Amino acid sequence: MLLKIEKRSEYSKAMVYLTPIIALALTVLASILLFELLGVNPIEALYQFFVAPLDTQYEFSELFVKATPLILCAIGLSLGFRANVWNIGAEGQLTMGAIVGSSLFIYFPETDSIFLLPAMIIMAAIGGAAWAAIPAFFKTRFNANEILTSLMLVYVALLFLSVLIHGPWRDPAGFNFPESQTFSESADMPILIAGTRMHFGTLLALLAVFGAWIMMARTLIGFQVKVIGEAPRAGGYAGFSQKKIIWLTLLFAGALSGIAGFSEVSGPIDQVVPSISPGYGFTAIIVAFLGRLHPVGIFFASLLMALTYLGGETAQINLGLPVAVTGVFQGMVLFFLLACDVLVHYRFRLNISRKATS
Amino acid sequence: MNNGGGTPQLELRGITKAYPGCLANDHIDLKIMPGEIHALLGENGAGKSTLVKIIYGVLEADEGEIFWAGNPVKIPNPHAARKTGIGMVFQHFSLFEAMTVTENIALGMSGRQDMAKLAREVVEVSNNYGLPLEPHRQVHTLSVGEKQRIEIVRCLLQNPKLLIMDEPTSVLTPQEAEKMFETLRRLSDEGVSILYISHKLDEIKALCHKATILRGGKYINECDPTQETAKSLAEMMIGTNLHAPEHSAQPEKGPVRLKVNNLNIDADIEFGVNLNTINFEVRSGEILGIAGVAGNGQIELLAALSGETRSKDASAISLDGKEIGQFGPNQRRNLGLAFVPEDRLGHGSVPEMMLTENAFLSGYSRMSLMNNGFINKGNTENYAVDIVKQFDVRTPGVNHTANSLSGGNLQKFIVGREVLQKPNVIIVAHPTWGVDAGAASFIHQTLINLAENGAAVLVISQDLDELFAISNRIAVISEGRLSVGRELSEITIEEIGLLMGGTHGMGEKTEAAHVT
Amino acid sequence: MSGFDWIVPVILTIITAATPLVFAGIGELVTEKSGVLNLGVEGMMLVGAVSGFITALVTGNYFLAVAAAALAGAVMAFLFGVLTLSLMANQVATGLSLTLFGVGLSALMGQEFVGEPVSALGKLDIVGLSDLPFIGPILFAQDALVYLSFVMVALVSWFLYKTKAGLILRAVGDSHNAAHSIGYPVIAIRYLAVMFGGAMSGIGGAYLSLAYTPMWAENMTAGRGWIALALIVFATWKPGLVLVGAYMFGGITILQLHAQAAGLNVPSQILSMLPYLATVLVLVLISKDESRIRKHAPACIGKIFHPAA
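Structure tokens for the assembled complex are given below, as produced in the milestone run.
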């Protein structure tokens, strides 16, 4: 091999910040190729994807609407990933949060109290956390792999939503469409800026960013999460409990994902429908990594991924590009990021082979 | 003195190998005659392992030549080495735990094998050389000594002309080592050359015909070890005059600080060892050494003492009279227990975290590094800086990661972190394993000073020289049982060797404590 | 005619439901035996499914279609190999990203073909035998891939436990450092194992789009790639048990379909949950015995190998 990979004596802090940018640049290059293959002018396509969606103030606010669930889910997931807890079931936790949070309105539609919305948000957090508690229990008690259990529960949650919406929760006045009745005003997320769809959930997301930042940087719990993830035996040596951290990170992620799901149904969607999320819970995995598992990084990564959702729609309308391009784009970002991450711990070096003197 | 006549079996000229930031081998020359047992002597980090890996084709040299029976050869990989006639027994065995003895041997040979025929050959060769093996046993059920036999038999089946042995006795009892020497002498008589890597001076004097000494990656000297004293060999190896740690011969023994009373632990993992009625106590001012071959319950005992495993019975462990058997690590720490684990990276420290964070890891509670629920960054940094200064840790700064430090410096950091917590009892596992001589003697002196200031010190080590240098009393752990601790003046190396081999004295018959 | 007429069709549908799991499971088993955990099975199956489907639609040649699916899966696996083996990326994260990427890529590739029908993979008729009552249709009138799936299980079993190459592959999974120091090319061996896993996942996916439901739909694997991963834990890394497990899960999938057809008064979605719930249950029951998992799992699984010093 001409190129030699050498371990750095210490990981490169500069590369930690640089690699997401390199990965993005590579993704853009690869998408230019992709657009050529799809027979679209790449410059035009990139413009439609990344610039056009931000033309107006309304469109700019939409960025935050899409980013809100991504931020909430990704903050929760990132804590788990930090601790080597691979919860990939945020989509299911999001769904259960939406269901449990909405149940208050569905069963008490007449309620007109200012406490209704806060109660629904709390219920949503509990619903999401309860769904995440299942893999936590199975992992800590029976050592069952949380990757597989949390993912299986996504399918179960989606099917459960389908049962409700095709059955007891269907709006009797809704011409038999699988939809609940629309939320009353007291069950709606308040709009932050008139004329946009930006809602209170965005503030909750920012609060989550801030809270997670403080927790990871300055508290013992945050320290424990990092130690358990980096070196579980060192955690045991310091008296930290791995089981406690598994529970904590899963419950935390479940609660935040639950709030994310509820803020969708009570915000932009305004009713319970069979498909609450276009895969926010999965995209959040990409967001978490792209944001370097750091709350502030996740904030920016969420905005970027939100842009790809908007850009995908714009490109579909204006260029007739398939929406699936968004998914490919998101997958590529993560791929390139993981590839570039080699630079954090290793450096490449030209292998100038000094031949044995003969 | 020159090698008389004849062609060397193996000759190295100017072998050089560089790693980023270090020259592991700097123009090394070496000659081994047929039938010669040749020692390669040097400290940890002297470049011995790198050199033999080059000979065996695991690594490629940057510069230099290899001659085999007078002809220049290239050894690009271990298959080529085996074909040439070189066999190697690795220090950290190259064995596959989940496989059988025969499968392991087949893997170490090139080409296809008929497994049934191979199994018969294994029995034949192993009996022939006094290295009995059962071909169908799974490796993880074997003792360390048996595992080493697999490696040796694997080499012998290929009729090597040169056998490389990398620190072979570090895992053996003195008696097992003596048996292995007989095998090596017999091979030497049959004309097989042996390259014997070690830092143990006595065994080199007893076994080897020639010795090449390496220091800091450089060739230092070639000599006849039988003509040298252990002290002169050591000086060539280390370069400076050695000074043994100093401690007052008759320590002031105070009250019992650590007491272990009928400690029983069932190993929770497949290949672990059960602890069986362990009893001992360590007094203030005293250093108790626990010797034993690795894998005889040391890991389990350490976990039970640190609190990573809780005992069923609170009274099994007492600290200054308080029963702590069911306390977690942090509770024990707050009562004055400090602990230096065997594995520096990943157990005693978090490799990818900064020294400040690693200081916080074990010190946050006893050193009051928390402030209203938040981490007090200022105090944490001061604590880390104190450790670095007082314990001579060579690092550009406390914001560098643990894995950027050399083994010796990291060990000094960890020992310093624990010592600055002013422990009443400190438990240290393998304090100088893989540490350079300077750091080792610094650590030994630190432990002795700590004891003289009233702490009780427990040292668990495989290195008998180390235990004899610093302990007041020595006990031996074997198959999960601990022998009675004996004063240094009342015990000999031979007795310890017998205890390590599982002879518990008092005619008591031992039973295997391995979990099945 | 007796009242047991339903048995043959039920068994036939179980076979079609189990076959994709057999392929994906046996492929991933080889990957894991070499010490690599590839969580991208779902993504590789999807890309295999869509590649196979498009090839069948365009060429009408099912042999080419299956080959294309295998190739597509292997290419995806090769990408995974580049990241985890050459660039030493975390295997869990990379596997996840392979699945996310595969979901997007397959949707993009297949978007013009959604809903287009192809004729189902033809059944082989073994003359004389396929007409036998009961066992005839079950044993002697399956499509070629069903037979291939059994052949693959036997082949993998033989390879792993009866050949030197298989011994080496297992050795690499047991201790990559030891294997490296005796001179085996750890990385190259793992590349082959990973790509074999990818090819098998691709064929498993193609079975879905060519035989099980001969059409293409986005995300049509519906978690089967993940179930295949769970199967390997269930089988404690033994090829024969992967086969047994695949047929168990196939049975559960079919059970719910037939229960729905039989007019069981339960919402169909509840029955559709069964395979997923069964997977969780099986994982819990098997993993409970931690030492048993530890004993059978390849010791190096998921660990990064860096061949320096």
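DSSP finds 16 helices and 23 strands in chain B. The CA atoms of residues 292 and 477 of chain B lie 5 Å apart. Further analysis is deferred to the final report.
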